[in-house]
Design brief:
By secondary structure, the chain is an alpha/beta fold. It contains 17 helices and 13 strands.
Length: 407
Amino acid sequence: MTNLPLEGIRVVDFGLILAIPHATQWLSTMGAEVIKVESKSHPDLVRGGFGPQGSADSIPGLNRTGMWNTLHYGKKSCSINMTTEEGRNLARKLIATADIVTENYTTPVTKRFGLTFEELSKVKSDIIILHQSSAGRSGPLSDTVGWGPTNQAYAGLPVLTGYEGGMPQSIGGTWPDYMIGVAVAFMLLSALHHRNRTGEGQSIDLSMCEMVTAMIPQAVFDFQMNGRLRSPTGNRDPMMSPHDVYRCAGDDTWIAITVETEDEWKAFCNVSGHTEWLRDDRFADGYARQNNLDELDEAITAWTRQYYPEEIMTKLQSVGIAAAPVLDSVEILNNPQLRHRGFFITPDHPEVGQREVMSTPVLYSNIPDKRIGTAPLFDEHNDYVFGQVLGMSPQDIESLIQSEIIF
């Protein structure tokens, strides 16, 4: 294997569900050793806590879900009962061998488990620890509990999402997590760079709500500058028109189309065979089209309904207009572009066999072999973590298992 850039870096990962596991997946792919810490009483929910949906062959189990196998391939798994003092001491010994610790418990649990920067810097002076929470670890809401939909709501996103005149809409519970996971990877790499230059450890306090609010600057800035409160507008854009998804031929098929400039509008009218739209006062320029969006979308839909999405994409892309079919899961899996780029990988998992999962979506010219591997079975690497990393004897390990410290 090629020497990966993060080889030699060890991450002890207490992160649950999506955002932090997604971040540590990036680190693992680039060579870091990521040790996932769980317990039998509190396994990561994506292992199977959402029922058989998304599990291989619809059979429930701790090692069978698509989400688990996509977010954790190439990592290691160990079990520690963090509700006991002996378990917390064991975790501290493991952390003493690490470069990075990640966690997203609620603030009271983080303190109870001794995973604060103040405590862990006593264990290892240059440790980097990332705390992820809904509203941050300081301020009046530092103890807040939140999930994706509630974090979106408190961050102000749903009031911008949905159709005009409709109620606020969440855009999916997992949307912030994956975006935040990528940001977490960047934060951890920045902290590593800082440590390598200064020798200093670091505590990173990440608020998911702040991250989501930072993704809608135009709405916040519009009110700050102009006193305007933005509201849902569906798929439309205040500057570009047309800008929407349009029904096509076939069963529930759609095409997304975006026209940015007047030159693109002229090209759109020509390639669609509707040059009369260029002479229609309702569509004469961007301002006119914005004032007649219903009529514009009705006219475009009458054209798109005659063709399949791929036909329209080919026509419009040939003249430089952004257009793409709205793909479902089957179409994504069969997408020739994704196949060409090797986006899907097929680890040979000991329980579910060879199943395709999504790789990290990037190609490096000088890192041809990202770390793949399989997602770990629950507590699969207990002997490695406690025996090889911590140097414990088999008898000591068995004693901790019997006393449910390794649990």
